[in-house]
Amino acid sequence: MRMLVFFDLPTLTTEDKRQYRQFRKLLIKNGFIMLQESVYCKMMTSPSMENSIKLLIHKNKPSQGIIQTLVVTEKQFVKMDYVVGEYTGDVIDTEERLVVL
């Protein structure tokens, strides 16, 4: 499974910018990779991992803005269609459970 996190956070004041940076760093620290600006992705191996990540996001949410999560299967994630732009090798998009780098 993959969890996608979409967020739109204000960056008008210095406090807004600080909260934006903290949230972004939290995602990166917990294994999320950036698919595009304000869209991050993480591979998960179990439903309990999904619940713990959702709880972490809820506990560390900024005071303003919008944050959304979406969980998709590997099969759905691999079928992502690139309309404009190119595939980058940063994201592992295979249905296999074990990927050797």
TrEMBL record:
Binding annotation for Mg(2+): 8
Recorded superkingdom: Bacteria
Cofactor(s) demanded: Mg(2+)
Pfam families: CRISPR_Cas2 (PF09827)
Entry-linked InterPro entries: CRISPR_associated_Cas2, Virulence_VapD/CRISPR_Cas2
Keyword Oxidoreductase: no
EC identifiers of the protein: 3.1.-.-
Keyword Hydrolase attributed: yes
Keywords noted in UniProt: Antiviral defense, Endonuclease, Hydrolase, Magnesium, Metal-binding, Nuclease
GO molecular function term, any single one: endonuclease activity
HAMAP family per the UniProt record, alphabetical: Cas2
Oligomeric form and interacting partners: Homodimer, forms a heterotetramer with a Cas1 homodimer.
Protein purpose: CRISPR (clustered regularly interspaced short palindromic repeat), is an adaptive immune system that provides protection against mobile genetic elements (viruses, transposable elements and conjugative plasmids). CRISPR clusters contain sequences complementary to antecedent mobile elements and target invading nucleic acids. CRISPR clusters are transcribed and processed into CRISPR RNA (crRNA). Functions as a ssRNA-specific endoribonuclease. Involved in the integration of spacer DNA into the CRISPR cassette.
Family: Belongs to the CRISPR-associated endoribonuclease Cas2 protein family.
Protein name: CRISPR-associated endoribonuclease Cas2
Organism (species): Roseburia lenta
Gene it is expressed from: cas2
